[in-house]
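Sync notes, pocket subgroup
Present: LS, DG
LS reminded everyone that the earlier model was apo-only. Rerun requested with LLP included. Inputs:
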Amino acid sequence: MSRKLFTYQGTDLHFGPNAYPLKSAVKNYQQPIWLYDLAIIEERVRWIQSWPQLGRLHYAMKANFNLDILKLFKKLNCGLDVVSVGEMKHALKAGFTGADFIFSGVAKSRAELAWAIENEIYQINVESFSELKRIIDIANQQKKIVSVDLRVNPEVDAETHPSIATALKDSKFGLDFPAAQLAIDLIAQNKCVQLKALSFHLGSQIMNVKVFEKALTIMKPFYQKAKSICPELDRFDLGGGLGIDYKNADSAIDQQRWDELAALFSRELKAMNAFLLLEMGRFLVARSSVLIARVEIIKEVLNGKKFMILDAGMSLLMRPALYQAYHEILPIYKRGEETETYDIVGPICESTDVLMLNKKFSKVEEGDFVAICDTGAYGAAMTSRYNLREESAEIFI
Ligand code: LLP
């Protein structure tokens, strides 16, 4: 994959493998802009699809549900990982069909399950015993045979921010091993459900490949045991969670980090003869977007602290306020060296609306533009209407 995604040519910031000059995007600026480069997504999808052990890549559309992005995933022959009927109905508009959906989520309603079963979706990832009983009930009513997956919690610490770890002992997600065993027994007694897959999803923004190794070591014997009871089991869904280094937007480094995972899959899964599924969000789309914002106010307070107040904040990009997440911020027009220190904040009436504290930056003036980097995943998808500011725009290079 191509390398550095942000480069300066003289004073001007350029973005993406084709070095798009960001000053072109702000010519008629009216409100914050999510600017996307689909080439970045395509490159990443094709790379993951080249992994020898992979069966099918499913895109976790919660990361970004923009229709043009979904259409690209459809064109690239990906399936989707979805968490609501709302997501599925939205994805239909991009050309997806039931056969493309893996349906995850801890609280699927009867109505949602009925819709999924009626539309014969690829796989329902079951996260509780109650859910399984609901599925059996509805499948009997509709006289359908439903392909289910059991999402098991292997209790592996994803070594990520606690708010986005999903396989800790007390997580609400998935089934613990005794519950999964009960579920297998129930499936074995009911012809209307077929155990097609086992899965785990450890969490998001994982940076250590060893975490996957641990989970595989725990899950493999359980898979074999389940298969001896339900011989139709032939898919292994390893969730998502692959992280990126938000401090260094370099595709080559992203690739190096996860090359090891591809190797791990080849080593560990070859003998299993299972169809490998992945549900990836962040890794595929995070790097594809910058959020362009305007410096609205520069304000210096008595202790000498300088605030750079942007017209975009937590109502658009919630990640810094919610998880203290780092998103690089760069001037689109660079006025010299980084001689200043700013607290970069948003316009929202909340003290937690902070993008970055004590950021060394070149001097900026009111009306300048900045690029907030790597905002393609869980950016636009998590916006809220708080403070009813002007809506942002999504545009494509
Ligand atoms: N599969 C399941 C069942 C999931 O819950 C998720 C994400 C994924 C796959 C995709 O994970 P990814 O490859 O994107 O890490 N809002 C947070 C991230 C929440 C992730 C939720 N689940 C953030 O901004 O960091």
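DG: The chain has two domains: 6-36+287-396, 104-280.
LS: DSSP finds ten helices and 19 strands in the chain.
Action: DG to write up.
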